[in-house]
Amino acid sequence: MFKALVLDQADKITTSSIQELDVSRLPQGDVLIDVDYSSLNYKDGLAITGKGKICREFPMVPGIDLTGTVAESSDSRFTAGQKVVLTGWGVGETHWGGMAQKARLKADWLVPLPEKLSGDQAMKIGTAGLTAMLCVQALQDAGITPEKGEILVTGASGGVGSVAVTLLSELGYQVVAVTGRSSENGEWLKSLGASRVVERSEFEEPARPLEKQLWAGAVDTVGSKMLAKVLAQVDYDGAVAACGLAGGFDLPTTVMPFILRGVKLLGVDSVYAPFERRQKAWQRISELLPASYYDNGCREISLEEVPDGAEAITNGQITGRVVIKL
User: Fold this and answer.
1) 3-class SS letters over 180-226
2) Which residue range or ranges hold the Enoyl reductase (ER) domain (predicted)?
3) Is residue 162 part of a domain?
4) How far apart are CA 6 and CA 18, in angstroms?
5) I want to staple 271 with a disulfide (CB 3.0 to 4.6 A). Which of 82, 88, 108, 193 is the partner?
6) CATH of residue 90
């Protein structure tokens, strides 16, 4: 038997409960894992509260991230006792996820846990950190170097944004953090490496086709009007790595930044990123993140506290990363 957070739905209303389940209830997979930690992401919050159509079937165990120890494996790539990490692949949406003490998963979805990371550190990184690292790598691949100027990070108080601020700072970039909670989180963002903090309200006016060139590049976690504004302000030959839609999935922009300034819009996906790219990003992030990030950017909760946390994260009331100890 194992403990799990289980979501059900009736009359389009999603409910959650802590249940004791038998291992036979787990879905099919190659690898059985004793889960040590999961994490609470915005997508998890939408699933648990029912505010978003995340889960494709019920009952469902949410949790798009997990780390733990292999208990059994029918795949030769993984052996009992090995530490692994899982992010994405529809886990917690179409396949039972990390908010349980056990999980059965496909071997193709797993990455060996880097030696430098503990399980709780891996979940303090999680999907958010992996996405942030992929964004940073996308900007580097586009030729955006620290010498070219400031890098903007939108939604900087969130999981992806806070890791992106930290990583970019560690790589020598001058980072400008955008947040709607500058009075509350400004000093914290500076402690993570932001050189300055800008209030989100400064980006709320509708974007003109082109505006003053301000940023060598950007990591955008918001989308919609915010992304349009950022694109209009990026330097000639600059780039924006876009990975989120907290502000909406529309993009009210024009072709002007692209054809007159050569701006590059780089779409970043972490859910189905191939193994090699995923493994490289995990290794790189394990080398770059300072110890101060794990101390300052994260907090731990129990499985019983998850429903309240889900409500808070969907209301924009969570700062940094939230780790769930199983």
Assistant:
1) CCHHHHHHHHHHHCCCEEEEHHHHCCCCCCCCCCCEEEEEECCCHHH
2) 16-324
3) yes
4) 6
5) 88
6) 3.90.180.10
How confident is the model over 147-206, as pLDDT tens digits? 999 999 999 988 899 999 999 999 999 999 999 888 888 999 999 999 999 999 999 899
Q: Which of 250, 267, 284 is the last residue of a domain?
A: 267
Write down which residue in 225, 252, 267 finishes a domain.
267
Q: Which domain holds residue 190?
A: 127-267
pTM of the model: 0.90
Beta-bridge mates of residue 13 = 10
Helix (H, G, I), strand (E, B) or coil at 20: strand
pLDDT in tens, 221-237: 999 999 999 999 999 99
CB-based contacts of 274, cutoff 8 Å, min separation 6: none
Residue 235, domain member (yes or no): yes
- Kindly provide the residue ranges of all beta strands, DSSP E only, lying in the chain, ordered along the sequence: 2-10, 13-21, 31-40, 65-73, 83-87, 102-105, 110-112, 151-153, 175-179, 196-199, 215-220, 234-242, 264-267, 298-302, 321-325
